[in-house]
Amino acid sequence: MQTRVHLNVTETSESERFFADTLGGSRTRDHASRGRSIRFSNATLLLRRQPPTGGTKGTTVNHIAFGVPDIRAMVKKVKTAGFPLVTRAEVPPTLEVQDDLCFMADQSTFVAFMMAPDDTKVEFIEIPAQVEPIRLHHIHFAGPSVPEMKAWYVAALGATPGKRGNFEAADLPCVNLTYSPSPSAVSPTRGRALDRIGFEVDGLETFRKRLEVRGITMSRVESGAVMVTDPWGTDIELSPRE
Fold it and tell me: Which residues fall within 8 angstroms of residue 108, CB to CB, at 6 or more apart?
């Protein structure tokens, strides 16, 4: 599997300035959607020029996170580019924040949070041993029942259940899936800044039949892909691996 993150953006150029010029992704053109995209080593962000109905917070996908070997260098780049750091507002008040960094003892590393264009929440997590300058680390879900949400992704997508620090989590070959309880009701992703997540799958037809056996409803979309919606409203696009 490879990860694809579909974003609705107000201005393509501003999203490219953040994800490409600041974070270091590569500008490409996605042939399937005929839109702009930003490619990282293990993920592609697809940009659709359509003003979103809201940011990521308050939806079933609260944020996406990138691993970086030097978080201080990345935070400096983000600040210099003029994008807002929001670490203090996004971690529990009991945790100390200095210079927009928070040390997470349960994971023995530093994290930082910022807001990308269109209120797309992004986390950076420091992984000193990481060879690549940046790569997608995890997708962080929010929902009313963490055990049920985690179990659905394990059963439907074949994710391997586990933990990430104190967080409930599950791993796919391409990305970690992390789950947190939401104190309030969450909205579906469709139409929001993060419209849907996607995975490129080897043997898509076999995978599709496995979902059918589990009684999971799918719909066809462009280029042979299929769309699945989890029980809480996250749209998931499964496409043949390029």
Answer: none
Q: Which residue's structure tokens are 């950076």? A: 124
In sequence order, the β-bridge partners of residue 35 are 30
One-letter amino acid of 83? F
- 8 A C-beta contact, residue 124 and residue 58: no
Q: Mind listing the pLDDT tens digit for each residue in 17-62?
A: 999 999 999 998 765 555 799 999 999 999 999 999 999 999 999 9
Instruction: Dig out the tokens for 105 from the structure.
Output: 């003892």
Task: Name the average pLDDT for the chain.
Answer: 94
Let me know: does 13 contact 22? Beta carbons within 8 Å: no
71: left (phi over 0), alpha (psi -120 to 50) or beta: alpha
3-class state of residue 26 by DSSP: strand
Tell me the domains of the chain and their CATH numbers.
2-181 (3.10.180.10)
The pLDDT tens digits for 99-126 are 999 999 999 999 999 999 999 999 999 9
Task: Say which residue the tokens 């203090």 belong to.
Answer: 88
Report how many helices (DSSP H) and strands (DSSP E) the chain contains, helices first.
5, 17
